[in-house]
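Fill in residues.
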């Protein structure tokens, strides 16, 4: 069989190109550090790597989301700390305001300080995050959640749902509590509060209520103690207008529904005292401070009725502030627990990312020892092919003629 010179050149050129392609491929693997550069290099490994890469990208997105959530929760925790400090300062001022030796001017000074705390709390309630969103507005975070009416009373107009963010595939976490939860709620364990009616005309004051038996059948209900003047000038009382009237004796505890309430002073006909759980009475922090400021700004000197109103209001507000402080501390503890949970999720996600990196490395990364051996082999093959081609193309019959 005769082989033409053209065929010899074509076959040698094809062999050289193939050897050079294999040699350059190993060099490219060295340059990139990857065994699989094109999907055709290892289709199965390339396919698995795509899936692992997608899972890694999703995990990274959740890690970025947790950074945002952590920043929001850290800011809320800082604000809640300021709020609790403000409530403690307000309680201190109420204790000072309840001092019977103070003059009306002194109490007005206390009221002025309390107003400053009130404004501070109002500002904290309408605080924004770094993106201009109102922290305690829920999902209605484009406008202030608390507003003042013409009389200066604060009301809540924000959303009633805490803003949430997905921080992991299976965890949707609240990252900002709404204003109702922080400023207008009390803990479920908060007990009873007593409050004298604003239009009471007597000098009746109260202490308590104290809980005697929380398992009483009527415990948890709301009550109104109503006082009636008898023909002989004595007074009787009933709960919620009941037909059975009991004689009122100053200083003697009144016991009902597992509660005990001690009364002093002389009531007027029609005076009343309301009793109820903190959740059913006044859980609004701003409303409590408004009552305290108003009563401290009212002249008391020489007016037993106003003195009784001052004593009763301050006792009620003190209990309400205690409950509000407990609530703020509970919310703050919840925020701290969520921050700790983010740390745990981050740890798990970090381990997951390491697993993804290891899997991708096993699938795609280059074994340098094996690649070095193959690089040397390909170089020898290419050099041999080149030398063979040079030797073959130089062969001619004229070399054998004498």
């Amino acid at each position: 069989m005769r082989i033409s010179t053209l065929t010899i050149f074509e076959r040698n050129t094809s062999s050289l190109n193939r050897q050079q392609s294999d040699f350059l491929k190993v060099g490219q693997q060295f340059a990139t550090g990857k065994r699989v550069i094109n999907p055709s290099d290892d289709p199965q490994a390339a396919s698995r790597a795509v899936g692992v890469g997608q899972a890694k990208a999703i995990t990274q997105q959740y890690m970025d989301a947790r950074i945002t959530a952590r920043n929001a929760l850290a800011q809320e925790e800082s604000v809640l700390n300021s709020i609790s400090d403000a409530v403690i300062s307000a309680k201190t001022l109420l204790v000072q305001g309840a001092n019977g030796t103070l003059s009306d001017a002194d109490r007005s000074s206390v009221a002025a300080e309390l107003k400053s705390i009130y404004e501070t709390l109002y500002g904290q309630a309408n605080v924004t995050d770094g993106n201009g969103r109102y922290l305690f507005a829920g999902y209605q975070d484009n406008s202030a959640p608390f507003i003042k009416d013409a009389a200066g009373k604060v009301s809540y107009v924000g959303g009633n749902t805490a803003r949430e963010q997905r921080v992991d595939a299976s965890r949707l976490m609240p990252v900002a509590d709404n204003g109702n939860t922080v400023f207008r709620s009390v803990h479920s364990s908060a007990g009873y509060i007593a409050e004298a009616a604003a239009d009471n005309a007597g000098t009746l004051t109260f202490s308590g209520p104290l809980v005697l038996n929380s398992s009483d059948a009527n415990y948890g209900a709301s009550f109104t103690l109503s006082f009636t003047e008898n023909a002989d000038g004595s007074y009787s009382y009933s709960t919620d207008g009941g037909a059975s009237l009991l004689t009122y004796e100053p200083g003697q505890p009144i016991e009902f529904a597992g509660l005990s309430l001690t009364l002093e002073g002389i009531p007027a006909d029609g005076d009343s005292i309301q009793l109820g759980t903190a959740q059913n009475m006044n859980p609004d922090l701003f409303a409590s401070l408004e009552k305290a400021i108003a009563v401290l700004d009212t002249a008391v000197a020489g007016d037993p009725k106003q003195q009784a109103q001052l004593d009763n209001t301050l006792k009620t507000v003190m209990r309400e502030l205690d409950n509000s402080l407990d609530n703020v501390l509970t919310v703050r503890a919840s925020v701290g627990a969520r921050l700790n949970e983010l740390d745990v999720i981050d740890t798990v996600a970090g381990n997951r990312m390491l697993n993804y990196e290891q899997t991708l490395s096993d699938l795609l990364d280059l074994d340098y020892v094996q690649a070095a051996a193959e690089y040397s082999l390909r170089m020898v093959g290419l050099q041999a092919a080149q030398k063979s081609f040079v030797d073959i193309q130089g062969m001619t019959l004229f070399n054998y003629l004498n």
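The chain has a mean pLDDT of 82.
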